[in-house]
Amino acid sequence: MRHYDEQDEPSCCVRCTPPFRFVHDHFRWQVSWLADHRQIASLPKADAPVAGFIEPIVISLTAHSCGGSRSISLRSLFIPFRGTIIEQGHNRNSHIVKHVCYNISITEVINLNNGGPSILGRKTKTCLISCFPTLDRKCRRMKLCRFGPLDQETPGLIDDTGMLRSLKGILPDITVGHLSPEQLDALRAINPNTLPVVSEAPRYGIPFSGAGKYICIGLNYRDHAEEAGLPLPSEPIVFMKAISALTGPSDGILVPQHATKLDWEVELAVIIGTKASYVSPEKALEHVAGYCVANDISERSFQMQTSQWDKGKGCDTFGPLGPWLVTTDEIADPQALSMRLDVNGHRRQTGHTSNMIFDVRSIISHVSNYMTLMPGDIIATGTPAGVGMGIKPHPVYLEPGDVVELEIEGLGIQRQTVKANS
Question: 211: which strand partners?
Answer without folding.
Answer: none
